[in-house]
Amino acid sequence: MAQIPIKRAIERVPGGMMIVPLLAGSLVATFLPGLPKFFGSFTNALFTGALPILAVFYVCMGASIDVKATPYLLKKGGALFATKVGAAILVGILLGHLLGEQPVASGLFAGLSTLAVVAAMNDTNGGLYMALMGQYGRSEDVGAYTIMSLESGPFLTMVTMGVAGLSAFPWQTLVGSILPLCAGMLLGNLDREMRAFLARAVPVMIPFFALALGAGLDLHKVWQAGLLGIGLGVAVVIVTGIPLYFADRVTGGTGVAGVAAANTAGNAAAVPALVAAANPVYEHAAQSATLLVAACVVVTAIASPVLTAWVAKRAQAREAARDATREATREASRPQNHTQARESKRLAP
Q1: Tell me: the pLDDT tens digits for 200-254?
Q2: Is residue 233 within 8 Å of 125, Cβ to Cβ?
Q3: Taking Cα atoms as reference points, which of 141, 120, 126, 170 lies closest to residue 296?
Q4: How far apart are CA 105 and CA 31, in angstroms?
Q5: Residues 30-57: pLDDT tens digits?
Q6: Which of 19, 146, 194, 255 is most buried, most CB within 10 Å of its CB?
Q7: At what angle do helices 202-214 and 126-136 cross, to 10 degrees?
Q8: Does a structural domain hold residue 3?
Q9: Alpha carbon of 339 to those of 306, 329, 331, 332, 347: distances in Å?
Q10: How far apart, in whole angstroms, are the C-alpha atoms of residue 148 and residue 156?
């Protein structure tokens, strides 16, 4: 039977194993939203099972992490977490002085608010980050999200906005987000064969998780939000991506982990309403902010993998160039060494 190079074609697309299934899922959600439920059973589970797949992804990825790398997780995750939240705080303070609590009333930026920007910037899409790092990064970089998961929820957005609200992150949720990774690390470090067995499943799950993730993204939201929503998504990738890139480089990375975190989590779209519930001052801003953040989720889910693939390619090219330079240096030194050896023999008594 004639073979079709499907895998090769997908991999030609930057971040293809992530972005192609994600787009496929979003097309279904946009134009055939009732299709998964119509067929039900396993078909519906395939399109709605992002969290279970992510949980298994955590276990398998954890199995590939050496427990000796724990200090690295704290350093990398802490650096990315502080950089992402710090960028959101700086932008929030700036926009807070310019816009206040209310959204822009008219003009090209009508609907834009401090709340929308901060909510879009504060929360990293953990599934997207881990999938990208599973394809382009190191296992330890994937594990860094256990620290970055503290971004989830409205708490940091409320702090940034200066609103009194949730004063603590629920410990059950925090522990629950770490347990699968810890279970995988335990299995992988107790048994090398289990590590090899589970680690092989990591790249296989990426397209399945991406499909389920895309199935929750309605492309109509980008259209409804218009150019402003697209612009906000691009701004999140650039404004957070640049400092995250350098934070990753400073902590010993290639910059890939940094740009892979320059996106917006799907649950961030719920943050404006939660903030407005805590403080009615933001009730008017929350209406347009929810739509803008939802559009930002879609835009960054597309832009972030493309940028990550580009940065990863450049990092590989730099490493190849360094290897070539080292090899050329060794080659250049060999004739000189041979000449010196012959000269030493000639002068020897």
Answers
A1: 888 888 888 888 877 877 777 666 677 888 899 999 999 999 999 999 999 888 8
A2: no
A3: 120
A4: 32
A5: 899 899 999 988 999 999 887 788 788 8
A6: 19
A7: 150
A8: no
A9: 51, 16, 13, 12, 12
A10: 12
Sign of the four-CA dihedral 35, 41, 46, 50: positive
**Token pair 């218009």: residue:** 226
Neighbour-count burial of 190, counting CB atoms closer than 10 A to its CB (0-12 exposed, 13-18 middle, 19+ buried):
exposed
Helix axes 202-214, 50-63, angle to 10 degrees: 160
In this predicted structure, what is the pLDDT of residue 164?
34
- Cα–Cα distance for residue pair 88/284, rounded to 1 Å: 21
Phi and psi at 108, nearest 5°, equal -60, -35
Whether 346 is in a domain gets the answer no
Phi-psi region of 111 (alpha: psi -120 to 50; beta: other; left: phi over 0): left
**C-alpha torsion 321→242→146→72, nearest 10:** 40
Question: In sequence order, which residues have a C-beta less than 8 Å from that of residue 19 and are 6 or more positions away?
Answer: 13, 210, 302, 305, 306
In order of 133, 162, 275, 304, the CA distances from 189 in angstroms are 21, 44, 42, 32
Domain-located, residue 74: yes
Whole-number Å distance between alpha carbons of 206 and 137: 13
CB-count exposure of residue 332 (10 Å: 0-12, 13-18, 19+): exposed
Residue 5 lies in a domain: no
Domains held by the chain: number: 1
Q: What is the CATH number of the domain that holds 246?
A: 1.20.1530.20
Question: Domain range spanning residue 273?
Answer: 15-324
